[in-house]
Amino acid sequence: MRYRLRRCSCRACAEESTYLKCPWRAKTLHCKNADLVDILETGTHVTEMLSVPKHRLTSEMKVFAQEMTAPGLKPVRIRNAILRSARAFHLLALFLPSQRKEEHYTEMFAALNRIYRQVIGKPLVVEKVMGDADAAQLNGVTQGFGGSAQLKYLMCFYHVVAKVVERTRVLQPPHDKSAGAGGVGICARAGHLHYILQVAVAHRALH
Questions:
Q1: Nearest to 137, CA basis, from 169, 116, 158, 159
Q2: Do the bridges between strand 128-131 and strand 36-42 make them parallel or antiparallel, or are there none, so unpaired?
Q3: In the beta sheet, which residues pair with residue 27?
Q4: Percent of the chain residues topping a pLDDT of 70
Q5: More confidently predicted of 103 and 77
Q6: Are 24 and 45 in contact (CB under 8 A)?
Q7: pLDDT-derived band of residue 85, with 50, 70 and 90 as boundaries?
Q8: What pLDDT, on the 0 to 100 scale, is given for residue 95?
Q9: In this model, does residue 91 exceed pLDDT 50?
Q10: How far from 117 is each of 38, 82, 92, 122, 149, CA to CA, in Å?
Q11: The 3-state secondary structure of the chain, one letter per residue
């Protein structure tokens, strides 16, 4: 026999009576052998209004979750994947999920290229791509868009500095500061000639 005391956890009662607790109480007796439950109630709810029901998974989401549990994925990844699957096909959505590999980027960018060709009737021409310091992302962009000669892969200044700081931790002073200054100088150049010179300076500092 399992004995439990319960109290009201209704959101509607809590909103109706801000300073007083709902007087409703209940006691449940559960017999595991007979699988029977007796419920004894006392008191009344502050309001008879029902709380807004919580959102439940749709049948499509449940099927999607079952397919993801087959390879042994964890509940957190299943929940995140369900939320991401409900998003529209947008460029920003491609970079939000974590733990992406090269084949994932290649497949997504190739799908974007196919959809654009079917809708517009012309091939998708990409001139510049802003990404982070990730080799998998760079290779996925190159393969997904067919290795266009016009494509330029731009890197965010933050990711450049983060990589410079990570790689120069093993250097001793003052070489670490000179290498870091070289990385910042590369990003601050306005002309191509100055860029080439700064790359050479940074290369000599690291070697």
A1: 159
A2: unpaired
A3: 5, 40
A4: 57
A5: 103
A6: yes
A7: low
A8: 46
A9: no
A10: 64, 28, 20, 5, 19
A11: CEEEEEECCCHHHHHHCCCCCCCCEEEEEEECCCCEEEEEEECCCCCCCCCCCCCCCCHHHHHHHHHHHCCCCCHHHHHHHHHHHCCCCCCHHHCCCCCCCHHHHHHHHHHHHHHHHHHHCCCCCCCEEEECCCHHHHHHHHHHCCCCCCCEEEECHHHHHHHHHHHCCCCCCCHHHHHHHHHHHHHCCCCHHHHHHHHHHHHHHHC
Say if residue 86's pLDDT is above 60: no
| R_g (Cα) of the chain, nearest Å | 29
Sign of the alpha-carbon torsion through 49, 52, 58, 64: negative
Query: How far, in Å, CA of 155 to CA of 138, rounded?
Result: 10
pTM of the model as a whole: 0.32
Q: What is the pLDDT of residues 45-67, one digit of tens each?
A: 888 777 666 667 778 878 877 88
Strands 36-42 and 25-31 turn out to be antiparallel
- What are the CA-CA distances from residue 49 to residues 12, 55, 61 (Å)? 7, 18, 30
Give the type of residue at 163. Answer: K
How far is it, in rounded angstroms, from Cα 52 to Cα 111? Answer: 39
Nearest residue to 114 (alpha-carbon basis) of 145, 139, 86, 152 = 145
